[in-house]
């Protein structure tokens, strides 16, 4: 099945093939038989409600642009990562696709398969560039060139079950430091409650802990130096200390039994089923725990609270330093001007506001913040507004090869299979191999 056929199947469109096309062309003129410009959109969205919102936006755009046919294709996350390199070289190459930014985007930009969108953003006096927050554009820029159209920003923070916290005698407002957090874990365990829902099977959910601890121990200066290969790199004492902090958490056995074989959706289900008191997750955790809970309902929104990853006493980082995604739409090199025009429409303030109201995202379009009405998402938006350093996910920012080692090391440190020193050395070795 061709890309166009896949897109038509997913969109549910009905195409009428006219057998007497040549005759009609003669009667009505060659222009009447000209084909629409097809815009191929590759996405990873699992939630049918969110896809339906996109379909609404596509319909409105097509009503205003009768000569454009926007076709959507879905790929599951891991399949997307596996198939994208081949897809970019095939006849079914999409016009644009989803990106996490960071080192992965940088590597993709060096393949020659992507379109530098700087000129498009700067046309008409920077009209499109000014549509987005400066941080969102800067985060998708390498060597002065913009490689993706901004879409949304994300935030990793702790979500907790208020009833289980009350049962365990834990108050979220008292968790200000990493030591406070470890004490809360101990209290929950003493009360017979699993403290944290862990998804060690996919590894990357555990890297959130190591990443945040590196940020809290070393601050931006240490991490930026390590990325540049300066100083002691990933063998900096602050980074090794972050590993020690993670090991200390692991010794408390904070996760549910068997967490090393649990996927992220399953971990969300553990939290949504009320079988763990906390989860360190994305800004849309409240919605996703419902989807993955056994009963399809999960915890009631009013029973879920959230708090920032705590500070580390004596660390150089700040509690206002945040970790999360900066996502955009990558445009392929032969994409049409219509594809870029649709992307500008998809991500304008009105549409980003509507998507924010649907709890799909934290917007990057200037003026769309007022669309964030979900209380937990609004808390995340407020925290991001006060961010002193917003860092993309480490496994994305450092590139695929180093990122895989970061994820592996994080799991092995927290599970007691590796020392923080050895973990830092493995990351440093992987980083040097990439240089």
From TrEMBL:
Cross-referenced InterPro entries: Bact_solute-bd_prot1, SBP
Cellular localization per UniProt: Periplasm
Keyword Signal: yes
SUPFAM superfamilies (UniProt xref): Periplasmic binding protein-like II
Pfam families linked: SBP_bac_1
Any one Gene Ontology cellular component term annotated for this protein: periplasmic space
Superkingdom of source: Bacteria
Signal peptide from the UniProt entry: 1-35
Alphabetically ordered keywords of this record: Periplasm, Plasmid, Signal
Family stated for the protein in its record: Belongs to the bacterial solute-binding protein 1 family.
Protein name: ABC transporter substrate-binding protein
Organism: Rhizobium sullae (Rhizobium hedysari)
């Amino acid at each position: 099945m061709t890309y166009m056929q896949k897109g038509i199947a997913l969109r549910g469109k009905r195409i009428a093939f006219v057998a007497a096309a040549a005759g009609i062309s003669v009667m009505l003129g060659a222009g009447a038989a000209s084909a629409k410009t097809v815009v191929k959109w590759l996405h990873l969205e699992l939630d049918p409600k969110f896809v339906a919102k996109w379909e609404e936006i596509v319909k409105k755009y097509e009503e205003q642009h009768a000569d454009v046919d926007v076709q959507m294709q879905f790929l599951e996350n891991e399949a997307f990562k596996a198939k994208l390199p081949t897809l970019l070289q095939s006849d079914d190459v999409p016009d644009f696709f989803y990106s996490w930014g960071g080192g992965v985007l940088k590597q993709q930009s060096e393949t020659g398969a992507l379109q530098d969108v700087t000129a498009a953003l700067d046309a008409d006096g920077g009209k499109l560039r000014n549509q987005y927050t400066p941080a969102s554009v800067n985060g998708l820029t390498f060597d002065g060139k913009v490689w993706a159209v901004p879409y949304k920003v994300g935030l990793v923070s702790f979500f907790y079950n208020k009833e289980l916290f009350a049962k365990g005698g834990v108050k979220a407002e008292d968790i200000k430091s990493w030591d406070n957090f470890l004490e809360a874990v101990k209290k929950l365990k003493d009360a017979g409650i699993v403290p944290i829902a862990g998804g060690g099977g996919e590894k990357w959910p555990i890297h959130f802990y190591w990443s945040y601890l590196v940020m809290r121990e070393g601050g931006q200066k240490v991490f930026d130096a390590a990325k540049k290969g300066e100083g002691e790199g990933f063998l900096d004492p602050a980074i090794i200390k972050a590993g020690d902090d993670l090991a200390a958490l692991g010794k408390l056995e904070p996760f549910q039994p068997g967490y090393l074989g649990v996927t992220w959706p399953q971990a969300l289900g553990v939290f949504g089923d009320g079988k763990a008191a906390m989860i360190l997750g994305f800004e849309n955790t409240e919605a996703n725990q419902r989807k993955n809970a056994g009963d399809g309902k999960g915890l009631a929104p009013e029973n879920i609270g959230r708090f920032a990853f705590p500070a580390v006493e004596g660390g150089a980082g700040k509690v206002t330093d945040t970790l999360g995604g900066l996502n955009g739409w990558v445009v392929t090199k032969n994409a049409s001007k219509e594809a870029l025009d649709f992307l500008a429409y998809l991500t304008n303030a009105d549409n980003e506001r509507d998507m924010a109201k649907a709890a799909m995202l934290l917007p990057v379009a200037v003026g769309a913040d007022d669309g964030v009405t979900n209380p937990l998402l609004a808390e995340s938006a407020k925290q991001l507004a006060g961010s002193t350093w917003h860092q993309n996910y480490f496994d994305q920012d450092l590139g695929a090869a180093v990122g895989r080692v970061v994820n592996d090391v994080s799991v092995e440190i927290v599970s007691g299979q590796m020392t923080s020193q050895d973990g830092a050395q493995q990351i440093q070795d992987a980083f040097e191999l990439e240089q």
